[in-house]
User: Fold this.
Amino acid sequence: MATAIIGTGGIGSAIARRLASGGETLRLSSADTESARTLAAGIGRGAVVAVDNGEALRGADAVILALRFSVLKGVVAEIASSLTGKVVVVPSNPVGIDEHGDISRLLPEGLSSGEVVSRWLPAGARLALAFGTLSADLLESSSNRSPQPAVLFYATDDDCAGEEVERLIRTAAFEPMKVGGIEQSGRLEVGGDLHDLVVGPAEAASLIGGA
Ligand SMILES: NC(=O)c1ccc[n+]([C@@H]2O[C@H](COP(=O)([O-])OP(=O)(O)OC[C@H]3O[C@@H](n4cnc5c(N)ncnc54)[C@H](OP(=O)(O)O)[C@@H]3O)[C@@H](O)[C@H]2O)c1
Assistant:
């Protein structure tokens, strides 16, 4: 199985390293290919660099769009013709960062990244929101936790996407847990009650039920 990762910055790199250490074959692309090349060199044989975003999708079952929210719509439009039937995993939070490092929300309160991205995708694309609940550092440090694995929450309306994202989360050495459909994805984002939490399965299940 191969997974494409478009965007090899902070979170894309962390996801790639986690998946590669679980044995996943990766196809990487980034804006200027330099960061994708550096990442691939660090990973070794399990990762190849694609010449562009469209090429990254070739032969991949799933694509992870590890992109800032502000560029997501443009990249979705660029690769739309290749997304039908593909699992599309989005970790993006709907926030922007200005030159002073100040973070601001880019969507109205109550409207989630998942709900907006689902409108941008072509028919037949299988959307899941996942891998965006933890910072890149926390994602790397809380994988392979024992005796209880740490949970990564996800949201999807699509059963095939759910199966594939669960496989990817396990490959990354976490326990997957579905929070609900895309309408629940705001809980995973910055400001959501399930964001930035490192918890085991029992606590995760009670948090989901407690909302
Ligand atoms: N960083 C975290 O800890 C973290 C944690 C959870 C969720 N998130 C979310 O994940 C998203 C990405 O955050 P980040 O911190 O990883 O951002 P980042 O470090 O700025 O990385 C963004 C990546 O996107 C690539 N890119 C930009 N335009 C592109 C295009 N047109 N085609 C292909 N690649 C393109 C950049 O390529 P170049 O490398 O060539 O510039 C870069 O690799 C954000 O929405 C954020 O909210 C981040």
Q: What stands out?
A: The mean pLDDT is 96.
